[in-house]
From TrEMBL:
It comes from the Bacteria. Keywords: Signal. The keyword Transmembrane does not apply. GO terms for molecular function: hydrolase activity, acting on carbon-nitrogen (but not peptide) bonds. This is Polysaccharide deacetylase. It is found in: Secreted. Pfam families: Polysacc_deac_1 (PF01522). The keyword Amino-acid biosynthesis does not apply. InterPro entries: Glyco_hydro/deAcase_b/a-brl, NODB_dom, Polysacch_Deacetylase. GO terms for cellular component: extracellular region. GO terms for biological process: carbohydrate metabolic process. Residues 59-262 form the NodB homology domain.
Amino acid sequence: MPVLLYHAVTDSPGRHVAPFSVSPAEFARQLDLVLDAGYRCVTAGELVRLRAERAAPGRLAVITFDDGYADFATAALPALRARSLVSTLYVTTGWLAGGGAREPGPSDPMLAWSQLPELEAAGVELGAHSHSHPQLDTLGRAALDEELRRPKQLLEDALGHEVPGMAYPHGYSGPRVRRATRAAGYGSGAAVRNALHRPDDDPFAVSRLMLMRGTTTEQFGAWLAGVDGRSGSPLAGWATVGWRAYRRGRALVRRRPGSAYR
Ligand SMILES: [Zn+2]
């Protein structure tokens, strides 16, 4: 099942997000490919509910966005609405405009708190993406809890209902982060594995396919055809553990957000 991950949808991205942005024309083309391939789009929350009910209603896809770039409302949403497609948007609450002091982040314009209710009314499911976008798996327990609980509370106060979805910044999680995410009251956690989501996957490790500026139509078509790069080799898991240890060491030396905001 393809769970797509977008960041900015714009022809003029800032430097940090540029490699992770797609143009509005490319975005529209990709949405049409999803529909042409016979997929029905659901939100991430619906996906988790359907899984829990063990329902299998045909070919499902999920379209997600991370961070909360302002162009979601002006570029992505019109293309989604024109095709009657729902989506899930995970916002970094400390980056949203109109909410007081902002956490350090991308220079690109971000969505405002005041826009969230109208996005919801337009078929967008909102979820959390931490408050300040740290690499969660490098944080101590108190900081980790704060980064999970604060955005949930802020979003629930703004929207007036429960917010059960979370996406890990940079896609980094691990068993400890997933346990803390569940303990903070979430029902799912979205990661980035550049692999298709399988029905028996952990709902706190939902695999997403990240759309980059360089993602080719061939690659996108392969994903829609059910082909991904998930390795069967046990070495892939060990490589991830090693990379996490390296990043954790670096984060201790240099306590600051990742250099690439995504
Ligand atoms: Zn992000």
